[in-house]
Each structure stands twice: as C-alpha cells, then as structure tokens.
Amino acid sequence: MHLLLVHNYYQQPGGADDVFAREQALLEAHGHRTTAYIRRNDEIHQYSLLDKASLALRTTWAWDSHAEFKRLLGQAKPDLVHVHNTFPLISPSLYYACSEADVPVVQSLHNARLLCAGGNYYRDGRICMDCLGKKVPWPGTVHGCYHNSRAQTAVVSAMLAVHNLSGRGVTVDLGPQAEQQGQSPAEVFSAAAHREQVDEKLEKVRLAPYSYRWVRLRSSPGP
Asked: 2-117+168-217 has which fold?
C-alpha cells in the first residue's frame, strides 16, 4: 500500500512529531511505500511582514499548501492519506483536496483542536463543554482558550466555524473503550489534559490510549 503521510511540525518538538516519524519508519519496515508532505512552523521566522499578516487567513485556508498538496496527490497517487497535524500552515484545505481526488483520509487526533480551540476540552480546572456541538465555537473566543488570547483564539474559532458551516463535518470515533465507558470527546480529552497537569511525566503518553483515532470527513456537503 502507498500512504501519503501529512504533518505540520511544531516549533517545539512534541509527541505528535515523534509519532509521525516512528509511524513512517514502521510502515516502511513492513513493506509499505510512503510519501510525506511536511510543513514546519519554523518557516514562519522567514516570512515577510505581509506573509505574517496573512497567517490568520492561511490558518483557515492555506492556499499555498492546498496547491502543493493537490499537485502531490496527482503525482504520488496514494491509496490512503494519513494526516497528523494541519495547524496552522497546512490547514483543513488538505481535506478538500483529498475529497476532490477521491482519496480516503485517516486522521490521528493528537489533541482535540478539530473540535475545541483550546485543544483539550478543559478550562479553569474543570471539563468544559461550552463549545461542544456548536458550529461557531464562540465561547472559546470569549474565554481566550488558545494561548490565553482572545485574538489568537478567534483565529482558531474562525477556522473551525468556516469548515463546520461548509457542510464538511467530521465524525470522531473515540474507539471501543471510550464508547463502553460512555465518554464524550470532552471527557476523553479533558481527562488527558488533567493528567498532564497533575504529572508532567505523562506528557510523552498524553491522550493515551486515545492518541490514534479515526476521523471520517464527509466527501460531500451535508443537508
């Protein structure tokens, strides 16, 4: 099988970066062919003032990544695209390119940012579900859930709102263990966030055993 792996590296190395590299090595060791599409947040340091000013828009729709990725899809012709992180330089525009090319997508959720601007459904020492189910997650902006900044959270919330309202919703399968326990996305990710705060040693295994979850994106607008 030929897999196209996608990841936006953070400026500070983290668990998602390690998982991406290890997964590629593991797949290749078992005879699968891989191609990687990578962006790095370190690129932002080289941006012009105009490029930096456009970051808010690019978080919602990164036109350069979309064009590059469409070309790569046509050249590589993968059987499957496996996405890790698209924030902020790749953006959800990638999913539209995959839909147009009729290529199936698997998404690993290393945090809850596709559903929650803060990324963990946890705020002020408690589980927070204020944005759960809202197509426009405005409570997160009011509370400044991303980096304790209302301005930065507004950018993330706008990204979520635009793609929620587009009709290309996401269905998150948290796996059989979460289903058996009757856990919602908020409870799963918030519990993990709380464990991180209690014990920093858990950073490398954060969200376990929920690190690898499937996200199914509708290929056509919903009703």
From this structure: Rossmann fold (3.40.50)
- 14 contacts: CB under 8 Å, gap ≥ 6: none
**Mean of per-residue pLDDT scores for the chain:** 78
pLDDT band at 172 (very low <50, low <70, confident <90, very high): low
What is the spatial distance between Cα 196 and Cα 186, in angstroms, rounded to a whole number? 15
Burial of 163 (0-12, 13-18, 19+ CB in 10 A): buried
Kindly report the pTM of this predicted structure: 0.76
SS3 (DSSP) at 80: strand
Tokens of 122: 């946890």
- DSSP-derived secondary structure for 140-199: HHHHTTTTT-HHHHHHHHHHHHHHHHTT--EEEE--HHHHHTT--HHHHHHHHHHHHHH-
